[in-house]
From TrEMBL:
Naturally occurring in which organism (per UniProt): Pseudoalteromonas arctica
Name the UniProt record assigns to this protein: Uncharacterized protein
Keywords carried by this UniProt record: Membrane, Transmembrane, Transmembrane helix
Membrane-spanning residues: 84-111, 131-153, 240-260
Length: 274
């Protein structure tokens, strides 16, 4: 189930004019298929629909009224990742092709020239040409980590999972981002998890509980808080990815420097031989 399908289910269940049978009929798969190709699958959306469906009609209607704003918010703060991935891939491919072309065509030519003279090849070619593949392997590993992190954060931004940071991601993702996501999920689950008299676990949930207790229109406040937290999370995700790209860029720059330094060494010594 994607978020647009979820929004449709919420609109149906929040209706005060439809009967239970009519809501069930409108929630059938043929109607859901109208929104099937308008977003990625979300386990969180599926879990929330299951939660709404398991409640009595009054509770289900109330929760659906809260949650019908989610598709709009998720689409508004959807994280665009293709630009980052394209940029990193293009830089990496250019570097690798340059290294392979130099190793395949230029180095053999120098070897042939210098082998006709008494000068030792060890003085011509430094260690870079012996271990030229090492920077490429390191860049592949670094690029793989960055790609994995970007795709994970894309899913985090799209709210596809309840607990996305497991395994290695607990160490790869900054604690600040994890805490912000956890706080966001706590706010998101407020309509289904809140119980009167039970202390809230976050300031946002406590605020919503107090608003509801005093009679404020909590649905609008719920939407406003979610929008604020999604915007903050999205901003920090982009900031973190920018830092990863900078680190990758520095590694690329160092690798290119070593490549150029090693590439010009045979040219400088060519004058001595000729």
């Amino acid at each position: 189930m994607n978020w647009n399908q979820f929004g449709y289910i919420c609109r149906v269940n929040s209706s005060k004019t439809l009967s239970t049978d009519q809501k069930d009929e409108l929630s059938a798969q043929p109607h859901l298929n109208m929104y099937a190709n308008s977003g990625s699958h979300s386990k969180l959306a599926h879990n929330l629909v299951t939660q709404i469906a398991s409640q009595d009609e009054a509770t289900s209607q109330k929760q659906a009224t809260y949650y019908q704003c989610l598709p709009e918010l998720v689409n508004e703060f959807k994280f665009e990742h293709k630009g980052w991935l394209s940029y990193l891939t293009i830089v990496f491919v250019i570097y690798v092709l340059s290294s392979l072309l130099y190793q395949s065509f230029v180095v053999p030519t120098f070897v042939e020239i210098y082998s006709k003279h008494t000068i030792s090849l060890n003085h011509v070619f430094d260690d870079y040409f012996t271990y030229w593949y090492v920077p490429i392997i390191l860049l592949v590993l670094l690029l793989s980590v960055i790609f994995t992190v970007i795709l994970k954060l894309k899913n985090v931004s799209a709210l596809t999972e309840l607990k996305p940071f497991s395994g290695l991601f607990k160490f790869l993702i900054p604690r600040q981002l994890i805490n912000e996501h956890n706080s966001l999920i706590t706010t998101l689950l407020f309509p289904s998890n809140h119980k009167e008299g039970v202390k809230a676990s976050t300031p946002q949930a406590e605020h919503l509980a107090q608003c509801e207790l005093l009679g404020l229109e909590t649905q609008e406040e719920f939407k406003a808080l979610l929008k604020l937290q999604l915007k903050l999370l999205n901003t920090h995700i982009k900031s973190f990815i920018s830092k990863l790209v900078i680190v990758y860029g520095l590694v690329i720059v160092v690798s290119i420097y070593l490549f150029v330094k090693a590439a010009y060494q045979p040219l400088f010594m060519l004058g001595e031989v000729l």
